[in-house]
Specification:
Radius of gyration: 27 Å
Strand order of the largest sheet: 5-6-2-7-1-8-9
Number of helices: 18
Distance between the termini: 47 Å
CATH superfamily of the domain at 33-234: P-loop containing nucleotide triphosphate hydrolases
Largest sheet: 7 strands, mixed
Length: 503
């Protein structure tokens, strides 16, 4: 074997070099700078894989990382559309240059090379696989994270990506349909064969929240991702964006009368669903077995033990990390010598012209106050008439910037908005619109950090705001909650909880 040329194609000997596993990994462009590479996969189409890829990229970018997306879904590319990109990629003599989205994300997709982005790609598998490989070897990437948006299934292109690109891991995207078990199993088995770790399982389109009543609507049925994750040994972490819910906290988070009536009217339908679940083998005795959090699943809760009702009734698997808040993106000028009142009803139930007129009537022209009103995109601002000199009315504002200098916050009591106000130690005026928001409002009121608004007239609004401003107890209690939020650890603590679950 001393005469070996290391060219196995011209040799018939059965040596150790020939029989050892051969690597098909391709090197990226010599001038490219690529950190970690993660593939985003799905066992079937239509589960929102490309949207998850886009959201992951934007989230990483917001954290300050350089991010790129390699769109490997050659026959169904959607990444450029997601970012509103229509320009054409260009190249040099020895490299392709990725296009850059308005958010600063590098993208390479077949749609950025076609003369007409609507032209179909009618190519056979080997050609498609070759193009995907070129997006790795010929593109001048300069990223900390490169996300590979794979086509659905486990076909030629997915295999080419697994074999030619050094993946740090994959994220599996599924939907709540019963097919999810098979979807995950196919992805897991392929990852095992390719020795690529699964770093996450995302159940997309789990439910939507009714804008009127706050009820969760499961369009595709209750998801089974937790079962699939447990079966295949994939770490599963639940994320609770409102209060954690069990039979103890349910008694504290009261529904308003309308919400309770809705629950009673829905009882026959609830009973039918419970019967169907029992027939399928699920041990459900009541509706609480479905809507309540169990004490066995690692769960990240984005509030503090102080704000969470009955926090001591939840197991050590619950990680109260506090709200995850973005910093202000701009600054806001507060007029000297005036109390700044900020009013917002959120982004959904904000079509409330009579209420906004009452707010302007309550504080307009009063030199003691500066009013900032975020009226939402559904509101015809012209219909409000002349705006007083001491009032600012916008469809939207940089909420964190306004809260930085506000003295009181009149809010609809969405969990995010209430948390942002309390984070700043602001007394709240509580004006909930949905059952979920009533639960948040009840908790704020019980902790003495806010004043319920029971009379939405101009006089009623003024009385509630002045009570919040003049009684120091409201601000003191809000500051206690703010201090509790900060002790929780935020994003770093959430990351530690997820890593703990994974290990």
């Amino acid at each position: 074997m001393s005469e070996c040329t290391h060219n196995c194609s011209t040799c018939g000997e059965s040596c150790s070099e020939r029989t050892s596993p051969q690597s098909f990994l391709k090197k990226p462009h010599a001038d490219a700078h690529i950190g970690k590479v993660f593939g985003v996969v799905s066992g079937k189409g239509g589960v929102g894989k490309s949207m998850v890829t886009s959201q992951l990229a934007v989230s990483l970018r917001r954290k300050g990382y350089r991010v790129g997306i390699l769109d490997a879904d050659i026959t169904g590319p959607s990444i450029p559309k997601a970012f509103g990109m229509h320009e054409k990629a260009v190249g040099t003599e020895n490299a392709l240059l990725p296009c850059v989205s308005s958010t600063g994300i590098e993208v390479m997709s077949i749609n950025l090379l076609l003369d007409d982005e609507t032209d179909p790609v009618i190519w056979r598998g080997p050609v498609i696989g070759g193009v995907v490989t070129q997006f790795w070897t010929d593109v001048l990437w300069d990223v900390d994270y490169l996300l590979v948006d794979m086509p659905p299934g486990t076909g030629d292109v997915t295999l080419s990506v697994f074999q030619s690109i050094p993946l740090s891991g994959i994220v599996v995207v599924a939907s709540p349909q019963e097919l999810v078990g098979m979807v995950v199993e196919k992805a897991v088995k392929m990852a095992e064969k390719m020795t690529v770790p699964i770093v996450g399982l995302v159940e997309n389109m789990s439910y939507l929240v009714c804008p009127d009543c706050g009820r969760r609507i499961y369009l595709f049925g209750e998801g089974r991702s937790a079962e699939a994750a447990k079966k295949h040994g994939i770490p599963f972490v639940s994320s609770t964006t409102t209060f954690a819910f069990n039979r103890f906290s349910a008694k504290v988070i009261e529904q308003n009368g309308a919400g309770f009536l809705q629950f009673l009217l829905a009882q026959p339908r609830i009973n039918r669903q419970l019967k169907r679940l029992r027939a399928a083998g699920y041990a459900v005795k009541s509706v609480f077995d479905i809507i309540a959090n169990d004490n066995e699943t690692e769960t990240v809760v984005y509030t503090s033990p102080d704000f969470q009702p009955c926090a001591d009734t939840f197991s050590e698997k619950y990680h109260f990390v506090g709200p995850l808040l973005r910093p202000a993106q701009s600054s806001f000028e507060k007029l000297p010598g005036r109390s700044l009142i900020y009013i917002s009803l959120g982004t959904v139930n904000n079509d409330a012209l009579p209420f906004y007129r009452a707010c302007l009537a309550a504080f307009g022209g009063d030199p003691r106050f500066q009013l900032v009103l975020s009226a939402g995109t559904q509101t015809d601002l012209a219909a409000l008439g002349p705006i007083p000199e001491n009032c600012t009315v916008r469809a939207s504002v940089d909420q964190m910037a306004v809260l930085d200098c506000a003295d009181v916050f009149l809010t609809h009591c969405g969990m995010n908005s209430a948390s942002e106000g309390l984070w700043h130690g602001l007394p709240l005026v509580l004006y909930p619109q949905t059952p979920e928001q009533h639960g948040v409002a009840n908790r704020v009121a019980a902790l003495g950090a806010g004043v319920p608004l029971t009379d939405p007239s101009a006089d009623g609004i003024r009385r509630a705001v002045e009570a919040a401003l003049t009684d120091p107890a409201y601000r003191e209690n809000a500051q206690k909650l703010a201090d509790g939020f900060r002790r929780c650890g935020g994003a770093a603590e959430a990351a530690d909880a997820i890593e703990h679950a994974a290990n």
